[in-house]
Amino acid sequence: MKTPALRQMGQAYSLTDFQTLLRTGKAMGGRELGTMSSVARGDLSHMTDSEIASLHAYLNAATSSDLVATAPSASSDGR
After folding, report:
1. What pLDDT shows up at residue 57?
2. Where does residue 22 rank: exposed (0-12), middle (13-18), buried (19+ CB within 10 A)?
3. Other CB atoms within 10 Å distance of the CB of residue 17
4. Residue 1 in contact with residue 35, Cβ under 8 Å?
5. Whole-structure pTM over 0.70, yes or no?
6. Contact status, residue 45 vs residue 26, Cβ threshold 8 Å
7. Rounded to the nearest 5°, which phi and psi values hold at 33?
8. How many H-runs (helices) and E-runs (strands) does the chain carry?
9. Which of 2, 21, 60, 79 lies at 20 to 30 Å from 32 by C-alpha?
């Protein structure tokens, strides 16, 4: 499964459009985005306005190295 490029999406979307995407799975212009649309409708639609705004701000402020550095590592479970 291909992972959506969230950083680029967050930077390309206004906060209002990003909220619509995460709540309905509909991209700008009402387009479907395959996996992203399915995940948004199934797993992200419950996010609060504040959570979406925080995620949007993070994606807009983050650099690629920030996203990699803050992602949990495979060994973070203590194994």
Report:
1. 92
2. buried
3. 16
4. yes
5. no
6. no
7. -120, 35
8. 5, 0
9. 60
Is residue 22 a contact partner of residue 47, using CB atoms and an 8 Å limit? yes
- Give the Å distances, CA to CA, from 47 to 2, 23, 33, 66, 68: 23, 8, 19, 23, 23
Please give the structure tokens belonging to residue 33: 């985005």
Q: Which two tokens stand for residue 63?
A: 């650099």
Which pLDDT value is given to residue 9?
A: 76
Place of tokens 């550095």: 69
Residues 20-62: pLDDT tens digits? 988 998 988 888 888 888 888 888 888 999 999 999 999 888 6
Residue 14 pLDDT: 92
- Residue pair 15/56 in contact by the 8 Å Cβ criterion: yes
